[in-house]
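Why do we care about 3D structure at all? Because function follows from shape, and shape follows, mostly, from sequence. That is the central idea of this module. The next example makes it concrete: a single protein chain, its amino acid sequence, and then its structure expressed as tokens.
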Amino acid sequence: MNYDAIVIGAGVGGLTAGALLARDGWRVLVLEGHIEPGGCASSYRRKRPDGSAYVFDVGATLFGGFQPGGAHHWVARRLDARFPVVPLEPAMQVHLPDRAITRYGEPARWEEERRRVFPAQAAVAERFWRRQEAIADIAWRFARRYPPMPPEDPEDLLGIIPAVRPEMVKLLPHLERTVGHELRRYGLSDPALRTFLDAQLLISAQVTSDDCAWLFGSAALDLARQGVFYPAGGAWSIARTLADALLRDGGEVRYRAWVDQICVRDRRAYGVRLASGEELRARHIIANTSIWDLPRLLGDAAPAALRRRAARVPDGWGAFMLYLGLDESAIPPGGAEHHQVVMDYAAPLGEGNSAFISLHPAADAERAPPGQRAVTISTHTAVGQWWAAKAAGRQAYLERKEAMAERLLDALERVMPGARAAVRYRQSGSPVSFQRYTRRARGMVGGIPQRPSLSGLHSLGPRAAGVDHLWLVGDSIFPGQSTAAVTQGAIRLYQLLRHAPRAEQ
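And the structure:
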């Protein structure tokens, strides 16, 4: 059977594109190597000998885009589906070495809180925050018109025109600027404030202020104001909702189906070859993968321009994850479900000096045995060291994992003193683990660091492979990482394909 579209990977971006096309009557097949959809934004169940179980989120734990006007909300309306999410307020608490700050979504509370926590330059900082919010508002309004970004051909340029408004002239001076430029412009040198901003940008843009594109950074710093949500039952409920919609509308999902090769003839993709040797054909191939993985999947058919483009994109980050079953008694009452911790102002962020802690709301009893909570802790980490440790032998690799896990437990103790003694289950994962389970190059996750040279108009688009009928979705293309961002990228691809020729009947 020839399909209209084959989607490689059941991540949120691929499922969104596939479900939208299936809703329009396309014959869509989604191929997924695992037994659950979602990729890095999924969950897994870990059973205990007594029959009880934990449900841990694999990677992504912070979710936005479900508010009216958000990308997930747009998709839900288009699919006539409902995501089982609830809003979280506050969005998170950030613990610096000498103070803590709560990220409220409500504007007045957030302004009061940031003035209280960073008094040294509060008046000047307010000018920065007002500018950040004004720039973000323009960016959000532009994004909600779903323009063809980045423009990849003359037709895209024409397509952007209806989304342009006079207010966007205000963005032109900021196109090549960084968040660091703005901080220096306002003379903001308070190390606590700078560290707070750097920590927030690292989790949302994969770079800190001196390197982060200002237009992207202004929106990245605005996520709490737009709304943070919790998916009931775990992250995988988002992907399951999309998969259910796709199946309802006649699409197919095949699990335990790893794609080893994208088949190309005369610079045109026509199918895929599975690890089993089976070959499947489609008019369009949608790769829900990273820019670094495309050359591997294309093999000798990979255009030289694609290989150069992938080589020019700097390595992304990896993640080290710690999954814990924790006695609920160790969790202080009244706190947020998400916590970011910075241990030392003087040390670089990542590698355990900054950590992100997520626990599910107590009301979601499906996630852990009675009296316990499932806790996920992550830190950014350079991938090379993990592959070097693995090459050095099993003992060297395990020692590195143990050392990093202890650093993350130190971070947890900052938020929940005595938590070590309350741990009832413990498992960890490194970039080596992510490579094994997701087949992402070197275990890199989180997408492309959002520097000015790789952000906005300089982003990659769905045609980045340079092969006819081969399309890219996921965190490598505009606008970048997060389930909301990859959903926006999937909407962009859907708008490109919805009127395209389909397979012959």
